[in-house]
Amino acid sequence: MALTAASGSGQSYTQILKSTALIGGSSVVNILFAIIRNKAMAVLLGPGGVGLMGLYNSIADLAQNLAGLGIQASGVRQIAESVGSGEADRIARTAIVLRRISIVLGLAGAALLAALSLPIAEFTFGDSQHTAGVLLLSVAIFFRLVSAGQIALIQGMRQIANLARINMFAALCSTVISIPMVYFFGEQGIVPSLVATAGITILTSWWYARKIHINVQTMSLPQMSQETAALLKLGFVFMVSGFLTVGAAYAIRIIVLREDGVAAAGLYQAAWALGGLYAGFILQAMGTDFYPRLTAVAGDHAECNRLVNEQAQISMLLAGPGVVATLTLAPLVMRLLYSPEFYPAVDLLRWICLGMMLRLVAWPMGFIVLAKGAQKIYFWTEVAAAIVHVGLAWLLVTKLGFIGAGMAFFGLYVWHNILIYLIVRRLTDFRWSRENIKLSLIFLPASAVVFGAFQLLPLWQATALGGVIVLVSGVYSLRMLLRLMPPDSFPAALRPWLPKSA
Questions:
Q1: What is the per-residue DSSP string for 344-357?
Q2: How many other CB atoms are there within 10 angstroms of residue 139's CB atom?
Q3: Which DSSP string corresponds to 99-151?
Q4: Helix (H) and strand (E) counts for the chain?
Q5: Which of 31, 87, 148, 426 could form a disulfide with 72 if both were Cys (CB 3.0 to 4.6 A apart)?
Q6: pLDDT per position as a tens digit, 63-75
Q7: 3-state class (DSSP) for residue 68
């Protein structure tokens, strides 16, 4: 299936790029704030403090996922389906139940984390000294879960601009709040900064969610029960999936901590944050706008496959040069954005970058399973992914040190790409377009060549080769993106200079 602008899908490419630009633009702002925040934390705390922050974040993510029961993801899907059918009453019922159950789950999740703070602290850190920190983290869980319900409504209604504003404001406040807290209180300021950031997010998401007009309805108990059951039934699958993903990340941090200490956990946290820095905004845009759009046409296999191919094509064109650039400039990036103490994480960062390139290929396909509501398939693929990821990490970290965690991430996505392709081929008869096969044969070998060059060549030669590949791939991606856009989306003065559509 050839996908070009001439085939009539130019407007679809425009929609993908617009939504990516909105979320991506906010993500660029987020990245800038993250760079400032990470640099400050690296200087103020060192690898050990950064590792501690990563562990607290893992606990919060795990608690939020378990207590949230997947209702954010199921709420997005339910509202997106209702929007697609134009059922205003159904949208209202889902929104009302979503808001109420988010508050209930937030209270329950906070109470549960508070009750288990001692054993969680002892298991994670190996002592009870961090119990107070885990206890305070329960407040952040309440804030996170309530704001998740509000964000699900905004996302399901596809108010992408408002989501972008929420993300940017949260990033700004997180930076402004966390740096002074850590500066004055050191490691003791880590958890209060996480709580304050979550508090800002709940206020911002409430401000935009309240602007969405919902028909106020009086719901009977059977209606409430039916709507709640629908959310929780689908949400349970998302919860288990999220738990496996977040749980695997938590387990890998624990493996690194047990094998090499808290400083190594900090190096892993730094490499992980940088590895996902550039690819993250594309993956976020994919989940924010692409998922609701795909859900609305999930019954049409041809349309579903077309959207996935288009999303994958745009994703690779946008992210490919950035990932290759991160591979090339890894030592400089690590020194500039963290500190010289983090230089041992450079090779780990490169392995994570290779995995991120494969992740960009796998994610669009994975959304087919979600959009089709194939809950059992989704569940078992996530179980298998968690087992493979943690199993590889345990095997490689114990033998090779913390760099094995990066190898495990790369190995996971080699395996996952093969599995998910076989699954979606059976679900919707999915095939990669010729354009995407071509892009894969460009960017995957380019990444491998740059990676191999730093293993085999002197630093200056490998850097020079990587720089040439970054330049060539960047120019190629730009030309391809311009070809995919309809000419009328550009100012008239620029149209004669645009590359001709294939």
A1: GGHHHHHHHHHHHH
A2: 19
A3: HHHHHHHHHHHHHHHHHTHHHHHHHHHSSSTTHHHHHHHHHHHHHHHHHHHHH
A4: 18, 0
A5: 148
A6: 988 888 887 777 7
A7: helix
pLDDT at 14: 60
Distances (CA, A) of 330 to 38, 291, 326, 442: 16, 32, 5, 21
Rounded CA separation 378/431 (Å): 19
Distances 133 to 49, 122, 184, 194, 331 between C-alpha atoms, Å:
14, 12, 17, 10, 33
Closest CA to 283 of 367, 211, 176: 367
The sign of the dihedral angle between the CA atoms of 390, 391, 394, 396 is: negative
Q: Of 432, 454, 435, whose CA–CA distance to 443 is shortest?
A: 435
* 3-state secondary structure (DSSP) of residue 402: coil
Query: Are 65 and 293 within 8 A, CB to CB?
Result: no
Confirm if 166 and 208 have CB atoms less than 8 A apart. yes
User: What DSSP line would sit under 254-310, residue for residue?
Assistant: HHHHHHH-HHHHHHHHHHHHHHTHHHHHHHHHIIIIIHHHHHHTTT-HHHHHHHHHH
- Between CA 325 and CA 437, with CA 314 as vertex, the angle to 5 degrees is 85
**How many residues appear in the chain?**
502
- Are 61 and 242 within 8 A, CB to CB? no
Distance CA(69)–CA(145), nearest Å, equals: 10
Q: Nearest CA to 357 among 388, 329, 317?
A: 317
Report the alpha-carbon angle 476-480-481, nearest 5.
115
User: Along the chain (502 residues), what's the average pLDDT of each consecutive run of 10 residues?
Assistant: 41 58 62 79 83 87 86 76 69 79 90 93 86 92 90 78 80 86 88 89 85 69 74 75 83 89 85 77 66 74 86 84 88 81 88 88 84 80 90 93 92 93 90 89 90 89 92 89 65 52 46
Distance from C-alpha of 382 to C-alpha of 376, rounded to nearest angstrom: 10
* Structure confidence at residue 465 (pLDDT): 94
- Max distance between CA atoms of the chain, in angstroms, equals 72
Q: 446 burial class (0-12, 13-18, 19+ CB within 10 angstroms)?
A: buried
Kindly report the average pLDDT of the chain as a whole number.
Answer: 81
* pTM of the complete model: 0.72
Nearest to 429 by CA among 305, 313, 312, 308: 305
Instruction: Tell me the pLDDT tens digit for each residue of 440-464.
Output: 888 889 999 999 999 888 888 999 9
pLDDT in tens, 460-476: 899 999 999 999 999 99
By the 10 Å C-beta count (0-12 exposed, 13-18 middle, 19+ buried), 216 is classed as exposed
Through-space distance between the first and last CA atoms of the chain, rounded to whole angstroms? 15
Token pair for residue 348? 């780990």
